[in-house]
């Protein structure tokens, strides 16, 4: 966000804040909750949360000190709720009408993806679009994509084998490969070969993921204004908003081409391609309340962004832990070679590779690709708790939350609760997934192995099956073909760029590893 714009907005925001305060003066319990002190009225605890290195260390400190439901301060001294309590989380994530997306997301998502984007729509429109898109992401349809996903990784393997490589930025390589995989698997189109689209896409990701004190402030200021006023910003776009607008143009161009060609195939009654977008167009033509052409087109950019970043970063962290543990690479190799030797007549069933899946689950737990997400309370609510909170002489068995409160869904902190994951919750330990009884079944939250990585409730990740299959395929093929090892003296730490990325000392996202062909 441009400095000038921020300064202008700060002045307006201060006026609004001073005049109206930080929200309605209805009663809630958050002010009385324990929470970390804040040294800054302007930024509150947000820099400690968002700019933390390694990401999550402050979250874990706060968890230990104040418990799984506590207060943190946002900008201008506002109270925010930070939640990793499973009962409270289930309630919050199940009630999207009350706990919706943050005002900033509601402002920015339509600019980047269109107002019909699944990430943006709510209520009946979300229900209708989601119903049609759920069919697109069914287990059978996703399973059918294995050959497309295998092709993406085999091309990478070919490139790595054909040129002498030693040290590779696997962060970059995984992002390129997942961009190709999501393009070909979801859209039936190789996005990597469309330079303009790939460029605007990278710019968009960079603009959205740039976290700094200025971005924190801009976020806090934006939400104080009505959308009608904010929309004026798009007429005088800052450089970051321009990146969103540029990507939207690229999306419109690409989605027009894609939709036209898929509709043509449908009209000719020729055999439809098995990419998910073709399936969507087909399912939509049979739906009783179909999506409009614009609504379909708005999913192109949505699925690219939602599907690429997260999966690429899971793969990057998986390669990072494997590079630290060569014996785990060998176990995966033996596992897959054994499977192939015993089932030479069948395609690989990746779900039948226990150690590979244990690594993937532990990566999703320990390096949660989206480490936290915001929700914004749109009407006063009462949130249940799994355990009472004793505060200021009162025992709270549930929590009154007032309209206008930000709630941080602390995904990565939930993944470290010893009450759920056991006393070794803070260790990276794939073996926990090989002994079923060790992973608590008492709190079933997410769609996959009680992990919250994909969220739960009506906004649960629609692409989780795709993400798992893609990770299984790319990781197993890479480990079968190469040995990964750490560079001497390399020092990356988890940093938050909306998703969790490995950051070097300069705050740049990358991960250089030695890659040796087998
Ligand atoms: C490891 C990989 C992934 C992770 C950790 C992940 C995580 C998430 C999370 C936490 C949400 C909820 C966000 C919110 O409501 O604030 C979400 C939503 C979504 N994800 Fe994923 N995701 C992954 C991969 C994918 C893939 C591969 C696709 C598609 C190809 C995808 C498409 C979407 C879409 C469209 C939504 C919005 C759903 C809705 O609001 O109804 N995601 N994802």
Automatic annotation (TrEMBL):
The keyword Protein transport does not apply. One of its GO terms (molecular function) is heme binding. The keyword Oxidoreductase applies. GO terms for cellular component: membrane. Heme binds at residue 461. Its cofactor is heme. It is found in: Membrane. Keywords: Heme, Iron, Membrane, Metal-binding, Monooxygenase, Oxidoreductase, Transmembrane, Transmembrane helix. Its main location: membrane. Pathway: Secondary metabolite biosynthesis; terpenoid biosynthesis. Belongs to the cytochrome P450 family. This is Cytochrome P450. It comes from Crucibulum laeve. The lineage of its organism: Eukaryota, Fungi, Dikarya, Basidiomycota, Agaricomycotina.
């Amino acid at each position: 966000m441009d400095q000038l714009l921020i300064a202008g907005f700060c002045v307006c925001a201060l006026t609004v804040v001073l005049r109206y305060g930080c929200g309605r003066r209805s009663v809630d319990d958050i002010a009385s909750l324990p929470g970390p002190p804040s040294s800054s009225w302007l930024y509150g605890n947000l820099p400690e949360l968002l700019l933390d290195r390694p990401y999550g260390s402050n979250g874990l400190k706060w968890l230990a000190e104040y418990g799984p439901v506590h207060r943190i301060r946002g900008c201008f001294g506002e109270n925010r709720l930070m939640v990793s309590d499973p009962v409270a989380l289930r309630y919050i994530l199940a009630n999207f009408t009350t706990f919706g997306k943050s005002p900033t997301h509601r402002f920015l998502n339509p600019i980047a993806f269109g107002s019909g984007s699944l990430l943006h729509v709510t209520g009946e429109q979300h229900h209708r679009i989601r119903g049609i898109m759920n069919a697109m992401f069914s287990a059978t349809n996703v399973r059918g994509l294995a050959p497309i996903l295998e092709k993406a990784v085999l091309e990478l393997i070919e490139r790595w084998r054909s040129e002498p490589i030693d040290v590779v930025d696997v962060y970059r390589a995984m992002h390129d490969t997942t961009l190709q995989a999501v393009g070909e698997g979801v859209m039936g189109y190789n996005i990597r070969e469309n330079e303009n689209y790939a460029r605007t896409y990278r710019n968009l990701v960079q603009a959205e993921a740039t976290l700094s004190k200025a971005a924190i402030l801009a976020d806090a200021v934006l939400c104080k204004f009505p959308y009608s006023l904010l929309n004026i910003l798009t007429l005088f776009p800052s450089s970051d908003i321009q990146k969103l607008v540029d990507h939207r143009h690229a999306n419109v161009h690409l989605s027009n081409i894609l939709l036209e060609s898929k509709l043509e195939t449908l009209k000719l009654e020729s055999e439809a391609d098995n990419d998910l977008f073709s399936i969507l167009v087909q399912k939509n033509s049979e739906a009783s309340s179909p999506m409009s052409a614009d609504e379909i087109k708005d999913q192109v950019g949505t699925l690219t962004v939602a599907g690429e970043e997260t999966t690429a970063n899971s793969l990057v962290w998986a390669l990072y832990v494997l590079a630290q543990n060569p014996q785990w690479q060998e176990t995966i190799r033996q596992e897959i070679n054994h499977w192939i030797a015993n089932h030479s007549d069948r395609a690989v069933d990746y779900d039948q590779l226990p150690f590979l899946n244990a690594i993937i689950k532990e990566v999703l737990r320990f390096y949660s690709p989206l480490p936290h997400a915001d929700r914004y309370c749109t009407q006063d609510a009462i949130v249940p708790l799994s355990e009472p909170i004793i505060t200021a002489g009162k025992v709270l068995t549930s929590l009154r939350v007032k309209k206008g409160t930000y709630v941080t869904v602390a995904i990565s902190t939930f993944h470290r609760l010893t009450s759920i994951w056991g006393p070794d919750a803070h260790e990276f330990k794939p073996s926990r997934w090989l002994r079923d009884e060790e992973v608590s079944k008492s709190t079933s939250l997410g769609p996959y192995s009680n992990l919250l990585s994909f969220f739960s409730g009506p906004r649960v990740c629609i692409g989780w099956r795709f993400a798992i299959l893609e990770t299984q395929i790319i990781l197993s093929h890479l480990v079968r073909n190469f040995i990964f090892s750490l560079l001497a003296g390399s020092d990356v730490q988890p940093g938050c760029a909306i998703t969790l990325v490995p950051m070097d000392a300069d705050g740049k996202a990358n991960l250089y590893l030695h890659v040796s062909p087998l």
